[in-house]
Amino acid sequence: QVQLGESGGGLVQAGGSLRLSCAVSGRTFSSYAMGWFRQAPGKERDFVASISWRGTYYADSAKGRFTISRDNAKNTAYLQMNGLKPEDTAIYYCAALGRGDYYSATDTQQKESYDYWGQGTQVTVSS
Known about the structure:
127 residues
């Protein structure tokens, strides 16, 4: 069983920073592709960033502002968010693709590819 738990969300002023954390259970964390997605009310869940042996990838809206990373020793993935804007307001979800080599770089950027999801953490950016 793989379980994910996000933390680090909160209320921040525009231009501020937050670092989201995703703690993952399981001994094979290092083999997982990890992704961050976000969803605002009434909208679809959108890709934000991913990291795996395929590389790191970012949505256009995140490039230059967000950084995805992971610490395999801690079974934790991170999303450092700088220069936050009100349009970044959403519930942020951490996801794990799961163990295996049978996915492409494109797959890691698609929510349909992911097997496990956290409960989400709210990020609210005020102007």
